[in-house]
């Protein structure tokens, strides 16, 4: 038995087992990331950072390696104009990152269109994310109006009085 453990094959099997365990721990400890598409990143930064008082978060390590994007590429819709438009600055390339809960982050990216001249649209494919944002709005006692429950859509105003429509999008 000891001869096998210290043979080349035995050492390789042990290394693979340790590597597999480390990858499992890395991936299970990674925060859950919710993505919201907005029409204006600078206004979104004011809304989520200043008005909702969400804490900025670091980009999760698994995003550096493209793991999350490759896992969800089939379920996330990115409009053609957002895919073809060149990104102009670092903020637009990385988007905004905020902490929602202990192991949950909000990633805000460009890609949504304005629905009306006085209304910004913030779109999300995950109901849990929308519910967490709505809870934060309710905790801060910001005036809001729920337009529909299925899919969840509500309106809230930012500091400048701009109406923001936050909508769950069914993929």
Q: In terms of topology, how is this protein built?
A:
Elements: H1 2-5, H2 8-29, E1 32-38, H3 41-51, E2 55-56, H4 61-64, H5 67-72, H6 80-84, H7 90-94, E3 96-101, E4 104-110, E5 119-124, H8 127-139, E6 144-148, E7 153-157, E8 163-168
Parallel strand pairs: 1-4, 5-8
Antiparallel strand pairs: 1-5, 2-3, 3-4, 6-7, 7-8
Structure notes:
- The chain has an 8-stranded mixed beta sheet with strand order 2-3-4-1-5-8-7-6.
- Helices cover about 40% and strands about 25% of the residues.
- The protein has helices spanning about 1-5, 10-30, 40-50, 60-65, 65-70, 80-85, 90-95, 125-140; strands spanning about 30-40, 55, 95-100, 105-110, 120-125, 145-150, 155, 165-170.
- The N and C termini lie far apart (about 55 Å).
- The model is unreliable at about 65-85 (pLDDT under 50).
- Strand 6 and strand 7 form a beta hairpin.
- With about 170 residues, the chain is of the alpha+beta class.
